Amino acid sequence: MKINLMKKQGFLALFFMTAVLSFTSCQPDDSIVDNGLTDTNVDASFTITPVEGKVNTYKLSAQTNGVLKSLWDTGAGEYAGKMEEEISLPDAGTYAIKHTAIGKGGGTATASKDVVVTTSDPLKGNLVQGGSFATAEDQAKWSILNLSATGAAFWSFANSSATIHSPGGWAQEGIYQAIDVVKDKEYTINMRVSSPSGSDETWFEVYAGKSAPQSGVEYKDNKVMGLSTWDGCAKAGFSGMLSTVGCVKNDQTGTVSNVVKFAETGKIYLLIRSGGNTFTKDGITVSKIELRGK
Predict the structure, then answer these.
(1) d(C-alpha 269, C-alpha 207), whole Å
(2) What does UniProt give as the signal peptide span (predicted)?
(3) Do residues 185 and 124 lie in contact, with contact meaning Cβ atoms separated by under 8 Å?
């Protein structure tokens, strides 16, 4: 009798657990409206303050109450930053500054403000011509470095940008332009790069060398920055400034840096060379190319 009673109790417990699990599994995923952990009132407000003693430089300060992470966009794509960011806007124009605040449970909010820069910084002006690729005149400022014998790899221009396409198999191609620089002056190079899909055995390299490019010859004079799947970037989709998403080391510094200087005053060649073995089907797109005095 004792054994039968224990069996009955066991069957009843099993039946009860099965019924509960069956009931809960049939509930829709949105049956719980809010788990109480997500902050739905994140405050993304921020201030913009000119930095004293610096030309066209501004401090962005997000309010910190309830904010766990800040994403900023100053016109060149969103990036993860600090609650306080110092930005430089060397060219005259109107800039829409956007801040996305992330709070508890992944709750988000976005705020934006405009900054009007009335005068360009004479020391940090962009030396690159046609770096926006916005018009046919801009695009004509760039020369093609033919490195793909069959023309399999090529650059195209559209939507204020340039895109390198390659079928893979190590096909590559370059673009470049000549720029005048001053001896021992430090410069920074940057550009916006993007691709919705990743690659394998692929490179996107930026050079600033004294030697003139030659058709059919890989350019290797003074590599400054870039993307490289061997070094760990461009394996998946990406979007942002090359100084942020890039991982290629600077030949001069031996570190990931976009700063460069030259031993002589005169002409250098800003050159982008890209290709690979398993190249992204979407190509790598570049825009907003800059070379500025630091």
Answers:
(1) 7
(2) 1-22
(3) no
Q: Of 61, 57, 127, 116, whose CA–CA distance to 90 is shortest?
A: 57
Q: Are 186 and 257 in contact (CB under 8 A)?
A: no
| Partners of residue 193 on adjacent β-strands | 240, 286
R_g over Cα of the chain = 27
How far, in Å, are 95, 189, 242 from residue 125 at the CA level? Answer: 16, 12, 19
The greatest distance separating any two alpha carbons of the chain, rounded to the nearest whole angstrom, comes to 103
State the average pLDDT over residues 201-215.
98
Residue, of 240 and 284, whose pLDDT is higher: 284
User: Range with the lowest mean pLDDT among 39-53, 217-231, 258-272?
Assistant: 39-53
Sign of the alpha-carbon torsion through 216, 219, 225, 227: positive
Task: Tally Cβ neighbours within 10 Å of residue 172.
Answer: 21
CB within 8 A of 84, min separation 6: which ones? 59, 60, 61, 62
Q: Which fold has domain 46-117?
A: Immunoglobulin-like (2.60.40)
Backbone angles phi, psi at 2, to 5 degrees: -65, -40
With beta carbons less than 8 A apart as the criterion, state whether 107 and 40 touch. yes
- Read off the pLDDT of residues 221-244 as tens digits, 9 standing for 90 and up: 999 999 999 999 999 999 999 999
Token couple for 57:
């430089």
Strands 187-195 and 84-88: what pairing? Answer: unpaired
Q: What is the mean pLDDT of residues 207-213?
A: 98
- Yes or no: is domain 136-293 CATH 2.60.120.260? yes
Domain segments of the chain as ranges: 46-117, 136-293
